[in-house]
Amino acid sequence: MSGCRLFIFAAALVAGCGALAPMYHRPDLPVPASWPSGPAYGAEPGGPAKAPVDWRDFIIDSKLQQVLAMALANNRDLRASALTIEKAQAQYQIQRSLLFPHINASAAEVGTLTPADLSVTGTREVLHEYSVGLGFSSYELDFFGRIRNLKDEALEQYLSTEEGHRSTQISMVAQVASTYLNLAADQEHLLLAENTLQNQQSAYALDKRRFELGIASQLDLSQAQSLLDSARGDVARYTSVVAQDLNALTLLSGASIPGELLPARLTKVTAVRELPSGLPSQLLQRRPDILEAEHQLKAANADIGVARAAFFPSITLSSSIGTASTQLSGLFKAGARTWLFAPQLNLPIFDGGSNSANLKVAQANRKIFLAQYEKAIQSAFREVADALADHGTLGTQVAAQQSLVDTTAQSLRLSLARYQQGVDSYLAVLDSQRSLYTAQHSLINLKLAQENNLLNLYKALGGGAAAADSATAETAAP
Fold first, then answer.
1. CA–CA separation, 417 vs 224, rounded Å?
2. Angle at CA 263, nearest 5°, toward 259 and 266?
3. Contact 459, 174 (CB under 8 A)
C-alpha cells in the first residue's frame, strides 16, 4: 500500500510540473524587422504609426457606414462564422467539464424469476430488488495532464475560431467598401459614357447636316458614326456593370439597400493617417489571421502533451453511495445502506507501436502548423509591402493622369477649332476625342485604385492594432 501511495504522489508531482506538453515559445518572425524602402515607397522610413482602431474611424462616408452596419447584421457568411464561435466555445466547455467528476443520481428496480428446478428451495421464486444511489463512474484522475492538455487544445481551437471570425469581419468590411467604391466608379464610367453619347449624337447630327450640304465628306460622316456607335455600346456595357455591382453589394449586405444609401459618384470614403514605410513588422503579429495560426500552433503543442500522456498509466474511479432493499418500503430503513468504490489502473504494456505513432503524428502536426504560421507572417508582410508600394506611387499617378486629361481636353478644343477653320481633317478631331475619353476613364480607375489601396492597407494591417489587442483581451477567458 505504501508503494502505491508513493507512486500516486510521484505521478501527481509530475502532473503538477506540466512536463508532458512542450513549453511554448513564440517563434521568431521570418521577415525583416522593418518594411522595405525605396523609390516605390515614397517617404523615407519614419516613426511608428498604426492603422485605424475601428472601421467607423476609418470609413467616413455616412452612407457607406450604414451599408456596412447592414452587412455586419445580415451577412450570412459572417453569421455562420459567429455561430462557429459558439460551437467552439461549447466544445471547450465540454472538454473542460472532464476535469470534474460527473455526479448522477440513480434509482432502479430489478425483478428476477427463478424456475423451480433452479431454485434452492425447489419452488419458483420471484425476487425484487430496489435501489437508489448517488455517485460517479469512470472519472479519470488527471495525474499526467492528458485531460488538461485536451482542455488547453480545445481552448486554443476556440480562440483560433474567434480570431478567424475577426479576420472574416475585417475582410468583409473591406470587401463591402470596395464593392461600394466599384459601384460608384462604374456609375461615373456610365455617366461619362452617357455624356459622350449625347455629345456624339449632337456631333453626328451636325456632320450629317454638313454632309447633306456638301461641306463634309462621307468619310467624316462614317467616322462620326463610329464614335457614336462606340459610345452607345459603352453606355449599354456600363449599365450592365452597374447593375451587377449593385447585385454584389446587395448580396454582401444580406438585404436590399435603400436607394438613398447608394453612391452618386466616386468620392473619398476613407480617412487614414499617413502610413510611413518604417512601420514595425511586429505589428503583423496582431493580425487576426496570424493570431489564428498561432492558436492553431498552440493547440498542436498541447496535443503533443496528450500523446505523451498515453505512455503513462491512467487511473479511473467509480464510486457511489445509496440504499438497497428487496422491498420498496425497506429502502430507507436502517441497515439498507450500500456503497461502491472501484479504482482502476490501466498500464500500457504493448500497443503495437500505436502510442509512438500517435506521438509522431502530433509532433509532425506541430511542425506543419509552425510552417503555416510562418507562411502566414510572410504573406502578411508581402501584402503590407505591396500596399505601401502602391500607396507611395498612386498619388503621383493620379496627378499625372489629371494633367493628361487637362492636356488632352485642350488638344481636343484646338483640333475642333482647326477642323472648323479647314486647317485639319476630321481624323485629328476623332483622335483627340478618343484620347480624352480614354484618359477620363483611366483617371476614374486610378482614383478608385487610390481608395482601394487604403482599404487594402486597412485589411493588411489587421484593421488596427488596438482593435486586435482589445478583442484578444476580451476572448482570453470564455
1. 17
2. 165
3. yes
